[in-house]
Specification:
mainly beta; five-stranded mixed sheet; disordered N terminus; disordered C terminus
């Protein structure tokens, strides 16, 4: 198979971006042409849902299409011809076995629909026909085949009573009619049209908030929203969008909020400890859906949860073209998760804040550098992921590309933040909180800034870090930053590759410096430890610029090459404590640039440095 580097144009919905990648020719005997090269146009960066989403062997599929089969989701690895079975691993990858729960919901909905009362006194074509009828009888049930027209998903079974029921009803003459079994409802039962033009906010909320409704089932159509779809004080519900699009109407009044948001209660709560699952929104699952705020009068988020909401889960959602954020917390919450999502061309991506217990898994956040239809004068993308004022955060398998700041985390109240298997591509990375653990992540950033609050710790392990502008470590007082088994490339635009005022450790790392000082401690009473690392390319290995009687530098088991000074770090200081043994320095001198010796220093002999008291 031949390989060559090509320009590829990729797109998803209204998003597109040009990237350079290595193309492997998978047609033996036909080499990749060198000119003009392949140009791919289509869904090549972000997977998209097939239309229809249900898999069929009678259909062919393009690469990176998502299909649903028996409750699981699969993604095509390559072009899939007609007749290929879903079990063929050469063509399909199982990417959503979490859908076992979704399938359970579907089966329950199907069973409930099949078990509806079939003993109707009358059947009407439309809801209006029922309202106009004078043939209703107390104690019977009637059925409608649709709301506006038969087959429009608005049909259901109604109970007819002479006494006023405790649930929402319509009065027809002296009788009352209400939905007989509201376990499964659709927005169409309450008047939604799903035509992409008529405002459906009111009927959508009526379906979700109807007493006794458990499953709210949308059709595969576009529902227009003239206002924020704000859900309050609901419990134990599954909202199944089934490929539906929720889109804001141009000029709508939802600015400043979110297109679709789950609130705990009206007025919100003062703190996480004030959340009461018995009276506020809890146990809400949102499945599927494409959310596009459109062009409202103000900047609007796509999704959100807060105001005392708890145990809220978003699965398989797509957010596009938000003028603000794809997902943003709407004040205080407890236990919210977002799984298997795509955020495309939103000004900012994912924000976790103002609550506790937040999980984000399997999310792609990408922008082409602008926000479609944005009304704000400043359209530039801001951040991919932001963690602020939240405790207990897990961010796993999240990819960010195209933002000014790929990852940011701020405030001392943000603690116990864990990121694993993430890729932050481009822009700045800034972490300032009370404890972050980052494992197996890739950071390609213009700069990496780590800020520590008092006696806290950041740990970066098994990460690949490319910080062209260097790494800056700041601290209130004390604390520790540890780099464990990382591959670090820095200094493309920096004279000091790592500048630190905190206790700092590099262990088992491989470090490539284009130039400059590898580590520059700039504050007294700090301990710098470098152990079992491989370092190359720096002019100075470590350079201190302060007297430090209480702190110190500990280096052992390192292999340093292509550097000018091993410990050209003292710069004339007379009180620097150094402990060094078992290191190898190639072509390096131990002394400071001005020739002054520290209180303890290293002596170079045959490339091996040994500690020695002056």
């Amino acid at each position: 198979m031949a390989e060559s580097t090509k320009n590829m144009t990729v797109g998803a919905g209204n998003a597109s971006a040009s990237v350079t990648a290595t193309v492997t020719d998978r047609m033996p005997g036909v080499p990749c042409p060198t000119s003009p090269g392949y140009e791919y146009t289509g869904m090549r960066y972000v997977p998209v849902f097939a239309d229809p989403p249900e898999w069929s062997s009678a259909n062919s599929y393009e690469p990176l299409e998502i299909v649903i089969h028996e409750g699981n989701s699969y993604t095509s690895k390559t072009f899939v011809p007609v007749g290929i079975d879903i079990s063929n691993e050469d063509f399909w990858a199982l990417t959503g076995n979490y859908n076992a729960q979704v399938e359970q919901y579907r089966q329950e909905v199907k069973a409930l629909q099949n078990n509806l009362n079939n003993n109707y006194s009358r059947v009407f074509a439309t809801h209006q026909d029922m309202i106009a009828s004078d043939k209703l009888i107390d104690g019977t049930t009637v059925k409608t085949m649709g709301y506006y027209a038969a087959g429009d998903s608005g049909g259901t079974v109604y109970s007819v009573t002479a006494t006023q029921p405790s649930v929402p009803f319509e009065k027809i003459g002296d009788l009352y009619v209400h939905i007989a079994d509201p376990t499964v409802v659709t927005p169409e039962m309450f008047g939604a049209k799903g035509d992409g033009a008529t405002g459906d906010t009111v009927p959508i909320l009526a379906a979700i908030e109807y007493p006794g409704s458990r499953y709210i089932v949308f059709g595969n159509k576009t529902y227009a929203a003239e206002d924020e779809i704000a859900v309050y004080e609901q419990r134990h519900k599954v909202i199944m969008f089934n490929g539906a699009t929720i889109k804001g109407i141009k000029g709508s009044k939802m600015g400043g909020g979110a297109l679709f948001v789950i609130y705990g209660k009206r007025g919100g709560v003062d703190s996480v400890d004030s959340i009461d699952p018995l009276t506020m929104t809890t146990d809400i699952t949102v499945i599927g859906g494409i959310f596009d705020p459109g062009d409202p009068t103000g900047d609007t988020n796509c999704l959100g949860a807060g105001g005392g909401a708890s145990n809220v889960r978003f699965i398989n959602t797509i957010c596009i073209n938000s003028h603000r954020k794809a997902y943003a917390p709407q004040s205080i919450y407890d236990n919210v998760s977002i799984e298997n999502a795509c955020f495309i061309n939103c000004r900012s991506g994912l924000e976790a804040g103002m609550g506790r217990n937040f999980t984000a898994k399997n999310i792609t956040i990408i922008t082409d550098g602008s926000t479609n239809n944005a009304t704000s004068s400043d359209k530039a993308p801001i951040f991919g992921v932001n963690v602020a004022n939240v405790s207990n955060v897990l961010i796993e398998n999240v990819t960010v590309k195209g933002y000014e700041t790929s990852l940011t985390s701020s405030t001392s109240s943000s603690e116990n933040v864990v990121l694993t298997n993430c890729n932050f591509d481009g822009g700045k990375v800034s972490i300032a909180n009370s404890g972050t653990k980052m494992d197996k992540c890739v950071l390609t950033a213009t700069s990496l800034t780590l800020y520590l609050f008092i006696e806290k710790e950041h740990v970066l392990s098994n990460c690949i870090i490319n910080a062209s502008g260097g790494i800056t470590i700041n601290s209130d007082d004390g604390g520790l930053v540890r780099f464990l088994d990382c591959v670090i490339t820095t200094g493309l635009n920096a004279s000091n590759n790592v500048t630190t005022v905190a206790n700092t450790m590099f262990s088992g790392c491989t470090v490539h410096c284009a130039s400059g000082v590898f580590i520059r401690p700039t504050l007294a009473d700090r301990i710098i430890t470098v152990e079992n690392c491989k370092v190359d390319g720096c002019t100075d290995f470590i350079r201190a610029t302060i007297n430090d009687e209480n702190g110190g530098i500990s280096c052992f088991g390192n292999h340093v090459v292509n550097t000018g000074y091993a410990y050209a770090l003292y710069s004339g200081q007379s009180s620097v404590n150094v402990s060094s043994f078992g290191n190898f320095f190639a072509s390096a001198s131990y002394y400071a640039a001005d020739g002054k010796e520290p209180a303890m220093y290293v002596d170079s002999a045959n490339g091996v440095l040994k500690s020695k008291v002056a």
